[in-house]
Amino acid sequence: GSWMRAAASVVLLVAGAVAGWIAHDVTAPPTETSAQNGFVRNAVSAHVVFTRERSHAVEVKAGKAKDEKHLVRWLSKRLGRPLDPPLLTTAGFSLVGGRLVADDGGPAAQFMYQDDKKNRLTLYVRNARDAENTAFRIVTDREGSAFYWIAKTYAYALIGKIDRDGLVPLGELVYAHLQKK
pTM to 2 decimals? Predict the structure, then answer.
């Protein structure tokens, strides 16, 4: 019926938006591997899909301390390593919650943050899978920016509809938090 056509249209619209965002600017410098490009594509795809959700943006909400502890324990267990999502309240963003996502057959964690204007950021984390540490990289598009790096045993991507100048300080906050652990 007509609702099936409408649902198919929404799916195609979201898929087109994701493909366009990725194809537009996620081109690797010669020093990057295709695995790193796949990581960024997956992180951006999850960001685009889930930040548009109003009612089901996260699987586990983080409104209360016990909920946040449950979220972190669950995602840490699924990734097989302890996770510690940073607080970004000094930058005006509160942790909304998170979800488990698939990343090329392996688990990844997505933590979602939101400011008082309902702007959303996501921090995407997965195991580095034998990748070497990389310097910070950023890709931008009309849809926003992705700031990503690989350090120690994890690969990270911080993504938002924020320009490069706004996202870099947030990425530095995340990195500084993670270095304390």
Answer: 0.77
How many angstroms separate the CA atoms of 177 and 54, rounded?
A: 28
Q: What is the pLDDT of residue 65?
A: 82
d(CA 76, CA 85): 11
Q: Pull the structure tokens for residue 154.
A: 């994890």
Q: Two tokens at 131?
A: 């990748």
User: Residue 31: its pLDDT value, please?
Assistant: 41
Cα separation, 119 vs 38, whole angstroms: 25
Residue 180 is which amino acid?
K
Instruction: Tell me if residue 96 falls in helix, strand or coil.
Output: strand
Place of tokens 């087109």: 16
Structure-block tokens of residue 170: 């947030």
> Measured between alpha carbons, how far is 179 from 81 in angstroms, rounded to an integer?
15
What is the gyration radius of the CA atoms in the chain, in angstroms? 16
Q: Mean pLDDT in runs of 10 for the chain (181 residues)?
A: 45 41 39 62 86 75 84 93 91 92 91 93 88 79 84 89 89 87 60
Question: Is the Cβ–Cβ distance between 150 and 156 less than 8 Å?
Answer: yes
